[in-house]
Structure formats: structure tokens, C-alpha cells
Amino acid sequence: MGVTSFDAYRVGDILGPGIAIFSPQQVATTQVAGVDWVMGPGQGGVSMRLRTHQMKDPTARWWLLPSGSPHPDTIKLVKDGRTHASWEPVQNMLLTNYRADLFQVIGWQIVP
Predict the structure, then answer these.
(1) pLDDT tens sequence across 67-85
(2) DSSP assignment of the chain
(3) How many CB atoms lie within 10 A of CB 92?
(4) Domain ranges within the chain, ordered by starting residue
(5) pTM score, two decimals?
(6) What value, to the nearest 5°, has the Cα angle with vertex 102 and ends 42 and 10?
(7) Quick check: 88 pLDDT over 90?
(8) Which of 10, 19, 29, 56 is the 20 to 30 A CA-CA neighbour of 44?
(9) Residue 49 in contact with residue 38, Cβ under 8 Å?
(10) Phi, psi of 107 (to 5 degrees)
(11) Backbone phi, psi, residue 92, to 5°
């Protein structure tokens, strides 16, 4: 298991951070023999923020993933901007495995 090296935030709802819910624009994928693969590294991944901001949706909640949170070695949290980070695969991987690995990230805390 790896561990995160900085605090990061994700918008979710009261049930969780929605880590495995993402748009096709966030994650670079390709099909091989009819099977979806996530491309990596350096091609983006599920979005995270490095700070919170005001949201208009009253049902949305910020979730914090503190520095030192464990995650599978097959994905890594990479800063890719001043206020943005992404969960990137360390190598090409099956989309189903990528989603499963995102669910294994431990340490989420709802921001009051």
C-alpha cells in the first residue's frame, strides 16, 4: 500500500466522496478487444481539489482525504495544478480494476 503525501478534497454527498463516479473527460480510456482500459500515467484521472470552495448545491459535501491516507500501489495521487490533483494509474489498467482500487482508498472524512 502507498500513502498520500498531501491533503486533498473531493465533492460528494452525505453518503461519501463519490470517488468512483467520474466523467469520461477525467479519465483517459481506450478499448482493447471490447474491454475498457484506463491509460496512465500522466494522462489524468479522477479529480481531487487541494482546497475547498463554496458550492451552490445544498446537498453537496466536501470530503477530506488527509495526508498519510493509505491507497493501493496501482494508483497514485498526483498534483497537476495549483488547486487540483488526480488519481492516476501507475500503468495502463482495466477500468474495472481502476474503479475497484479507488474504492480501496482509506481515510475519508466529511468536512463539517
Answers:
(1) 999 999 999 999 998 999 9
(2) -EE-SS-EEEEEBTTB--TT---TTTS-EEEETTEEEE--SSS--EEEESS----S-TT-EEEEE-TT-EE-TTEEEEE-SSSEEEEEESS-EEHHHHHHHHHT----EE--
(3) 16
(4) 2-110
(5) 0.90
(6) 85
(7) yes
(8) 56
(9) no
(10) 120, 5
(11) -55, 140
Closest listed residue to residue 20, CA positions, set 108, 112, 91, 96: 96
Distances (CA, A) of 1 to 12, 14, 95, 98, 101: 24, 27, 20, 15, 11
First to last CA, the chain: 28
**pLDDT of the residue at 2:** 96
Q: Which residue carries 466536501 as its cell?
A: 62
Which of 38, 14, 22 has the alpha carbon at shortest distance from 93? 38
Which residue carries 498519510 as its cell? 68
CA 66 remoteness from chain centre: 13
How far apart (Å, rounded) are the C-alpha atoms in residues 52 and 19? Answer: 16
Omega before 72 within 30 of 0, i.e. cis: no
